[in-house]
Specification:
341 residues, alpha/beta, 5,6-Dimethylbenzimidazole Phosphoribosyltransferase, Chain: A, domain 1, Rossmann fold, 2 domains, 14 helices, Nict_dMeBzImd_PRibTrfase, glycosyltransferase, nicotinate-nucleotide-dimethylbenzimidazole phosphoribosyltransferase activity
Length: 341
């Protein structure tokens, strides 16, 4: 596929010059200064506009491996949480309300009919649950392509609604297992290097989860050379849709603030689907999951926060939104040294 157009290098250079000219000691803004330069480059303007319109989409789906002892919670939690998002009572909902971020939840592969939820929530549903990746493919190729296309369509919808910054959230019991497998497959890593405790499993369950990831990677074999085949064999409908969403955002020139390991695994696949997409991503926070740090490092991204968060839902990215807003305002509104001397 053609490479994604990167953020404006001219705006980046101009922003770096403006940053150096602010009435602050050299380097005093630290990583907030670096973040401000990135925001300006993504907007293609200096000083950058205030980052006011932030929109998050939570991609929900169930995963066949959840029936095989890889999670501390049952799959029934997934549909329950979809309903909780809709009532505004989830953790990410609280953060979104605090920071004036619009949140939308979509069912791509929840293993439930979700009776009574608004029709728009299921408008892009691909299937009920995914295959257990250590035993079978997660999806068919057609399902993977449909999920990717759905994600791109949702990104277009959110951008048309005025989004200046997008966030991809996730909900799905067992989803850190396919996320770990996708990172390992994309980076050529072992199951031991990428597998973490997810919802807080103990040592024995972690050993079992690692074995599941190892078996999944062996089953997928050389198919992981292709990103669509990687998602088909090792992903899920929700993660494939998230990858399409992130690729679509980058292709449209809209920046994204990444969340935890599931969102970052999707980002890694988005960068494979749309080479160069990672330049449009910033890392909201560092997850305790080892796959997340490895994937971020491969994309050259350093997390803004390190709070030990492992909630998912987009919560870590939401927590970092005030930093993005502050960075843009600092570059725009701080006096220049030349103005006060």
């Amino acid at each position: 596929m053609p490479a994604v157009t990167p953020p404006s290098s001219a705006a980046r250079d101009e922003a770096a010059t403006r940053l150096a000219g602010l009435a602050t000691p050299a380097g005093a803004l630290g990583r907030l200064g670096d973040l401000a330069v990135w925001v300006a480059a993504t907007q293609g303007r200096v000083p950058p506009e205030p980052v006011e319109r932030v929109r998050a989409v939570i991609f929900a789906g169930d995963h066949g491996v959840a029936d095989h002892g890889v999670s501390a919670y049952p799959k029934a939690v997934t549909p329950a949480m979809v309903r909780t998002f809709l009532t505004g009572r989830a953790g990410v909902s609280v953060l979104a309300a605090q920071h004036a971020v619009t949140v939308r939840v979509l069912d791509l592969g929840v293993d439930d009919d979700l009776e009574g939820v608004p029709a728009d929530v299921q408008r892009h549903k691909v299937r009920r649950g995914s295959g257990a990746i250590h035993l079978e493919d997660a999806l068919t190729t057609d399902e993977t392509l449909a999920a990717i296309a759905a994600g791109r369509s949702v990104a277009a919808d959110e951008i048309a609604a005025g989004a200046q910054l997008l966030i991809s959230g996730d909900m799905g019991i067992g989803n850190t297992t396919p996320a770990a497998a996708l990172v390992a497959a994309s980076l050529g890593l072992t199951a031991e290097a990428v597998t973490g405790r997810g919802t807080g499993i103990g040592d024995a369950a972690l050993d079992h989860k690692t074995a599941v990831v190892r078996q999944a990677l062996a089953r997928a074999g050389e198919r992981v050379a292709d990103p669509v085949d990687t998602l088909t064999s090792l992903g899920s409908a929700d993660i494939a849709a998230s990858a399409g969403f992130l690729a679509g955002a980058a292709e449209a020139g809209v920046p994204v603030l990444l969340d935890g390991v599931v969102a970052v695994a999707a980002a890694l696949l988005a960068d494979r689907l749309a080479p160069g997409a990672a330049a449009w991503f910033a890392a909201g926070h560092r997850s305790p999951e080892p796959a997340q740090g490895l994937a971020l490092a491969s994309m050259g991204l350093q997390p803004l926060l390190d709070l030990g968060l492992r909630l998912g839902e987009g919560s870590g990215a939401l927590a970092a939104v005030p930093l993005v807003r502050s960075a843009a305002l600092l570059l725009a509104d701080t006096a220049l040294l030349s103005e006060i001397l």
